Amino acid sequence: MKLVRHGESGAEKPGLLDSEGTIRDLSGIVPDIHPATLAPETLQRLAAIAPASLPAVPAGTRLGPCVGGTGKMVCIGLNYHDHAAEAGKAVPTEPMIFMKATSAIVGPNDDALVPRGAQRMDLEVELGVVIGSPAKYVAEADAHAYVAGYCLINDLSERNFQSRREGQFTKGKSCDTFGPVGPWLATPDELGDVHQLRMFSEVDGVTFQNGSTADMVFKVPFLISYLSQFFTLQPGDIIATGTPAGVGMGKKPPQFLRAGQTIRIGIDGLGEQRQTLIADQ
User: For residue 152, is pLDDT > 90?
Assistant: First the structure.
C-alpha cells in the first residue's frame, strides 16, 4: 500500500495510490496520514479497502509530506561507506546522530529555498523510515514490527552553516524546506529488501549520486534498536538513514546548489521528487 497526503500546504487530506497511479481519497475513512493512522491495526484496515471504491483525486493535485504530525526527524550521518570515504572520514563505530527540525518538512515537489547567506547548499537522497508504534528498548530482531513504512527524503544541507559556523549540524540541516518527504509512504510489503534499493540524485539533468542502500554501514533494524535505547521513537517519527557518495561537497571541485537549478531524486519503489531552487526572501 502506498499512502499519500494531497492538497494545499497545511490542509492536506489522506489518500492512497492505486495500481494505475491514481490518487484515491481516504478522507471518509481516516482524518489524515498521521501518528494515529500508522498503528498496525489501522494500516490493516486501510489495506483491505478496494481502491476503486474511493473517490479519485484530480490529476495534478499537489502532494504534501506523506506523513503528518511528525514529532522528530532523526538523521544518521556518514552511514554509507562510499560517502564516508568521499568526505575523508572514518566509518563511524556507532551511528552519528543529529536532528532536523520538523519545520523543515515539505512536500516532495515543493520549491526549495536557498537561505540568506548560503554558500554551500547541497543535496542528499535518503531512505526514510517512518515509525508506526512506540519503540523503546527494542531488540534488533524485533525492529521491523515498529515500522509503518518507508519513504523518500532529500536531506538538504547548507555545509557552511553545518560545519564551519561552530556547534552541531542542526542549523545547517534545518532551514525552511530542507526536508522534502514523499511522494508516498510505502508499507513494508511494497518494497521487499530495503537494503537492495537503487537510489539516485541529479541536478539540472546531471547525475550526482548513483548508489544503493546495500552500502549502508548500519542497517535499518540496528538503527531502530540503537535509537530506541536513548529515547522513545513515537508513531510518525522519521529516521533519515544516510546518503551515498556523489553529493556536491564530494565533487572535485565541489559543486554546490544555487537558485534557478532543479533537483531530481529517487529510490526504487519510493518514487521521485523534484525541487526547484529559489532564493529565500
Answer: yes
Q: CA 107, 149, 237, 125 torsion: positive or negative?
A: negative
| Alpha helix segments (H runs only) across the chain | 40-47, 81-86, 159-163, 170-173, 220-228
**Helices and strands in the chain, H and E counts:** 5, 18
Q: If you average pLDDT over every residue of the chain, what do you get?
A: 96
Q: Say whether pTM exceeds 0.90.
A: yes
Dump pLDDT digits (tens) for 19-69: 999 999 999 999 999 999 999 999 999 999 999 999 999 999 999 999 999
Instruction: Quote the cell numbers at residue 200.
Output: 539516485
3-state secondary structure of 48: coil
Whole-angstrom distance, CA of residue 113 vs CA of residue 240? 20
- Give the pairing type, strands 125-131 and 147-154: antiparallel
Domains of the chain listed by start with CATH number: 67-279 (3.90.850.10)
